[in-house]
Specification:
Two copies of one chain form a homodimer. The first copy, chain A, is mostly helical. Chain A is built from ten helices and no strands. Chain A has two domains: about 50 residues, Orthogonal Bundle (Arc Repressor Mutant, subunit A); about 150 residues, Tetracycline Repressor, domain 2, CATH 1.10.357.10. In chain A, helix 1 crosses helix 2 and helix 6 crosses helix 7. The first copy, chain A, binds a DNA duplex through helix 1 and helix 3. Chains A, B: GO terms for molecular function: DNA-binding transcription factor activity; transcription cis-regulatory region binding.
Chain lengths: ~210, ~210
DNA sequence: AGGCTAGTGACAGCCTCTGACAATTGACAA
DNA sequence: TTGTCAATTGTCAGAGGCTGTCACTAGCCT
């Protein structure tokens, strides 16, 4: 943020992002054109594409921050924790501290609303899932490293992350269709779904 | 397939689909325009969009058939099987019988090659994942019904499917980056990843 | 045989995204 | 302060996906 040039650039990007999110969450993603965004910020359409690879990238920018936050949390888990426990703790801690991370850029409320938009907009939801798949691969590597394993030789890191990721995506989805759109509700849901993994995998459900 | 009109329609659709898949698997998805496909079949671009909602739909048409095949297999599992076992058996049986289902439309080889294209083309992969998420929801309902549960009251059906689905997507991905692109390899991978779920969830991996 | 309708082609147009070039503006040294 | 260089932006042009409209043709039905 040294020079004037850099500050101006940052301001343009911020305006673009904030305006985009505002429009997405009010009139919907599909209903908002890039021209709308550019016009609202009073820059050319071309400029928008110089800051964001596409409409999609702007829509997922906050999610990207959250993801980075979680991955960092996983990396910082103490090595003695069992793999699944490390993932669990990282996510729970992530929810607790996400507020500050997001508020540094936009109101947390905008993030939560955007989350809904993502879950309910097919093309965004698809992109979100693809991104999740990428993240899972990198987390599997982190896990493997923690345990001193080779991801390509031992399937357990990837399997563990696949299972965990599956449950996390379920959690996100159920949160988005629920009524309580708070980070706290997200946290609570996370805990309850994770503790259902054991029971769900048990032989028969009838003998609960 | 009664009238001439219906037969002609079917032929146009077949030609469109087959040509599209052929082009996608040879020059790549992004490199193939709808105009290319339409031109190769000698119909107008507009006609392509009358048969497929978009380029994407054509690319995922076979996958859609396979999915329907699997879902049907799950529904036909004997009620006494434990949930996870029913899913496992359905998928394995699915792989065994998929050949005939696909061959009825296009050479199985085209399906396998298209699968690779999907996994390696971001936008297609994303769409594929989104579709998988939809399927998971419907399978969770099947499972709940089998067990006489309410999907919204008992989390276990959705959790079980989320876990299973996570592992299946991992399986697909690893298959697509491997060397053996046969249905048999897919089957083998499925078995080996599924049996890693237990070990991956265990407390510590070091005391294997 | 003639009316009816599904299917198609031909346009026109919107929107996302990219390349190219020129104009503007900030950075920095003389 | 001024001139030069480089970064940023606007403008234009155009490709490609996708949709609406309308007229026309070919199969269908009585």
């Amino acid at each position: 943020m040294e020079t004037l040039r850099e500050r101006k650039k940052q301001r343009t990007r911020d305006a673009l992002l904030r305006t985009a999110l505002e429009l997405f969450t009010t009139q919907g993603y599909e209903q908002t054109t890039v021209d709308d965004i550019a016009a609202a910020v009073d820059v050319s359409q071309r400029t928008f594409f110089r800051y964001f690879a596409g409409k999609e990238e702007a829509a997922l920018a906050l999610e990207e921050m959250a993801v980075a936050h979680f991955v960092a949390a996983v990396r910082e888990r103490p090595p003695h924790e069992a793999p699944m426990e490390a993932l669990r703790q990282a996510v729970l801690e992530g929810w607790d501290t996400l507020n500050d991370v997001i508020e540094a850029v936009v109101p947390i409320e905008l993030y939560l609303r955007m989350y809904q938009v993502i879950e309910s907009t097919p093309v965004l939801f698809a992109a979100h899932l693809r991104r999740s798949a990428e993240i899972e691969e990198s987390i599997a590597r982190v896990l493997a490293e923690r345990e001193g394993l080779d991801v390509d030789a031992d399937p357990r890191p990837r399997v563990a992350v696949a299972v965990f990721g599956g449950v996390m995506r379920l959690t996100e989805r159920q949160w988005s269709v629920g009524e309580d759109f708070s980070l706290d509700a997200m946290r609570t849901l996370t805990v309850s779904y994770l503790e259902q993994v054991g029971p769900a995998l048990s032989e028969s459900w009838r003998t609960r």
